[in-house]
Amino acid sequence: MSRIGKKPVALPAGVTAAVSGQKIEVKGPKGTLDFTATDEVTLVVADDAVTVEPRSKSKRARQQWGMSRTVIQNLVTGVTEGFKKELEINGVGYRAQMTGNVLKLNLGLSHEVNFEVPAGVTVTAPKPTQVLVEGIDSQLVGQVAANIREWRKPEPYKGKGIKYKDEYIFRKEGKKK
């Protein structure tokens, strides 16, 4: 039995959910998101809550049960609060700057990296060494932050590169004479 799947997803005030077949659409103050569940689960909206039930006792149905409930919880959180990832840039001369819809990154490469920000996500650079990725879609926010980080992952000797704010970089000791 899925412990996560058993819990109903509460719908706060101002949030509505509509189910049509296997598709659920959640509307809130920040926007509208939808999710199409697999055929292994059943979605039910009742009493200001969404419940997910497996249709069988197969392993796949139990996997989809907990996953579907978590995705629906992320939809509700996204349309009410939104999601945010903070990135830090460490290194001499490493910096970020927003120009219109393009994030310009100086990362010690021979050229400047121009990162096009996709629709549905807001990227800001409040400081030259800080980048904020915000949006209502959890998956999209995480993917955009990962794509930015991919340009220069933090290295273990000096910690230079782009890292998440709460990420710990395991540091190595350099060569000894």
TrEMBL record:
The keyword Disulfide bond does not apply. Pfam families: Ribosomal_L6. GO terms for molecular function: rRNA binding; structural constituent of ribosome. The keyword Nucleotide-binding does not apply. One of its GO terms (biological process) is cytoplasmic translation. Keywords: Ribonucleoprotein, Ribosomal protein, RNA-binding, rRNA-binding. PROSITE patterns: RIBOSOMAL_L6_1 (PS00525). Residues 12-82, 91-164 form the Large ribosomal subunit protein uL6 alpha-beta domain. One of its GO terms (cellular component) is cytosolic large ribosomal subunit. This protein binds to the 23S rRNA, and is important in its secondary structure. It is located near the subunit interface in the base of the L7/L12 stalk, and near the tRNA binding site of the peptidyltransferase center. Belongs to the universal ribosomal protein uL6 family. HAMAP family: Ribosomal_uL6_B. Part of the 50S ribosomal subunit. This is Large ribosomal subunit protein uL6. It comes from Halocynthiibacter halioticoli.
